[in-house]
Amino acid sequence: MTxxxxxxxxxxxxxxxxxxxANAPIEVLPLPKQAIIPMGQNLGAPSxxxxxxxxxxKVGQLIAEAGGFISANIHAPVSGKVLKIDNVPDASGYKxxxxxxxxxxxxxxxxxxxSKDVKEEIELDSKEIIERIKEKGLVGMGGATFPTNVKLMPxxxxxxxxxxxxxxxxxxxLTSDHRLMLEKGKEILIxxxxxxxxxxxxxxxxxxxxxxxxxxxxxxxxxxxxxxxEVQSLKVQYPQGGEKQLIKAVLNREVPSGKLPxxxxxxxQNVGTAYAVYEAVxxxxxxxxxxxTVTGKAVRKPSNFMVxxxxxxxxxxxAAEGLPESTGKIINGGPMMGKALTSLEVPVxxxxxxxxxxxxxxxxxxxxxxxxxxxxxxxxxxxxxxPFLLAKAAKLGRFDLAENELVMDCIECGSCQYTCPASxxxxxxxxxxxxxxxxxxxNRKKK
Amino acid sequence: MLxxxxxxHIHGDESTxxxxxxxxxxxxxxxxxxxxxxxxxxxxxxLLASVAxxxxxxxxxxxxxxxxxxxxxxxxxxxxxxxxxxVPSNLPSWMVIVGAxxxxxxxxxSFGGLGKNIFNPALVARVFLLISFxxxxxxxxxxxxxxxxxxxxxxxxxxxGIVKEGLxxxxxxxxxxxxxxxxxxxxxGQMGGSMGEVSAIALILGGLYMxxxxxxxxxxxxxxxxxxxxxxxxxxxxxxxxxxxxxxHLLTGGMLLGAIFMATDMVTSPMTRGGQLLFGFGVGLLTIxxxxxxxxxxxxxxxILLMNAVVPLINRGFKPRRxxxxxxxxxxxx
Lengths: 447, 334
Prior knowledge:
The structure holds two protein chains of two kinds. By secondary structure, chain A is α/β, with parallel strands linked by helices. Chain A has two domains: 1-26 and 116-364, 3-Layer(aba) Sandwich (Rossmann fold), CATH 3.40.50.11540; 376-446, no CATH class. Chain A is built from 14 helices and 17 strands. Chain A has helices spanning 126-135, 148-151, 176-183, 185-199, 213-223, 243-251, 271-283, 313-319, 360-363, 376-380, 387-395, 399-404, 415-419, 426-446, and strands spanning 26-28, 34-38, 48-49, 56-57, 62-65, 74-75, 80-89, 95-103, 162-166, 203-209, 229-234, 266-270, 289-295, 303-308, 327-332, 339-340, 354-359. In chain A, strand 5 (62-65) and strand 6 (74-75) form a beta hairpin. The termini of chain A are far apart. By secondary structure, chain B is mainly alpha-helical. Chain B has helices at 16-38, 40-65, 75-85, 93-108, 121-132, 134-137, 159-168, 173-176, 183-188, 200-212, 219-238, 246-251, 255-262, 273-293, 300-317; strands at 140-141, 155-156. Chain B has a two-stranded antiparallel sheet with strand order 1-2. The longest helix of chain B has 26 residues, at 40-65. Chain B is globular and about 80 Å long. Chain B starts with 15 loop residues before the first helix and ends in a 17-residue tail after the last helix. The chains are: A alpha/beta, B mainly alpha. At the A-B interface, strand 15, strand 16, helix 13 and helix 14 of A face helix 1 of B.
């Protein structure tokens, strides 16, 4: 059911959408020769390797265990010999612990159902589903990579009422969720039903922005045969894919400052996560591959690939007909929140939704000018903050002021910096403020 | 070579320069009207004020601050034109130059330049000139369309001056009214006054352009003008023989110029909508207080400058509506 267009009310921007790869069907990328698997692929503690050098592993075999409560298992994305357990490049630009596997053949763990049949019937109960999701290493696929099983276990006293499935994909350029909804709609809906069962909720709403009418129609049509699942079309506005903004848009509920969505009875999961849930629960398949958009204005063939985790970015770019000469910046993720990569050897990880190639002339920031106090940053902030003030507080080391002015509520969407006529790197300063205030708060709690 | 920088990696196309030149475009109708009514003298003051403002900014940035020169960002040009708008067209050239020096040197650069000044530079200069050269600053040439030929300029008082003098001399409004311009004349600019303030239509046109371009929001002008209408309306309702009517207050003096171009100055007005509403209210209230009970017939400049001074305080008191915090609930941080 698509009702009237909804959206969130505070702030927001509308950057050029540039969904260049929207019509490119998902292609399966050939296996990498070598898979590079960083141990820090999720929010929280990094995973711990349980294989050693020289071991032969099958696709889907557990190779690293969750390193804490907020952490996730990692499975072999390719079959072959473990070449080394060493520091590997990751999206942060640092070398961090990881496992490197030299691919040999494509031998899968026998317990994984590789048939193409869509399995509708959900056999597991709530507890078993959550256990399975944990075992299969699922994390939020939208980019935040929060372990999925943790989100499915509301803290004592809190009850989930709604499951929201995030099909917003508000980042410009990215189309992986869009394609997934068009091509794996049924699986996403079954995944959604599984999540509903796990959470014991009756109602699920899939939020999709109306720049994807085909996905809205397709999902609406399919959702008719699934009880309790609705599709809500949303007015295009960034950052609607933020959890708090999505809840506000769909249900008009406001998550209190400093609290989680469960506070207002909601759990939000990405469509990619719902698909991974389907695969984990119905097919016993761990999270070893994902859809990645490869795009950019100069990219010869903007594409969507089904990629094994650990595949170096270079191989994706080659499959999109090569690195354009004009490339000045490579971004892991979208242009608003993605991370600029330092090399092409960085691998695809669980949270990689896209690889965006920016041309040289788009890559550099404009020179910074004086703040003219135009307040535009304040008008666009979806959290109702005053970025100019927070940036100044951080710049001057006034972290007490930054804390009082709610710097920790910043979701780092970048709307302020995008809008600033003086091209001030506001978000750089806000991140500094968040890091310092976060440390101050932790130290205060220790005492 | 790959560029590595923090997100976001794209930027909207707004810039300081575009905003400043947007304000310049918005002032074109009023500039044209001023040249139409006040002739070459108006052109002289406009050019002189603009060039002098830009020149002083360059001089100070290059030789006093020894920092980057940013005269092309359009902000000095805006100040120059606004200064010209705020003086009579027959002001001696050297006074215009002194005004530009005060605006740029004293009111803007000595606070640290663009974005750091507390007071509106053009208004500081206007008030400086008014206090220093009261005679020249209040000899208003009567507007005469240039198509009527360049006759010797006749000077006369502004409508506000006529009212003030008349009431002070014990006359009633019905005795004064015949001496005043009609509403239509005020709309078109056929009345005595500073160069840029005379035509309401030209100013409103510029204001609409700035609204559409999102250079200004409606909050300050609407709250200021509404306050003026309500406050002067109450007084007029009580005693129409001793108080001018609200429409007269709206259309005369620097009311619209102030509401549209001066009070809305980004740098010197509050940062949140709520703060802007209060700011506009304060300007409107002070303007009428000064116009009716003050020593000067016109109070817009003083009112805006006074309110400029409390902007930092307003910014502290008025915060945006926060996401996830109920209004009125104390924020606990520790």
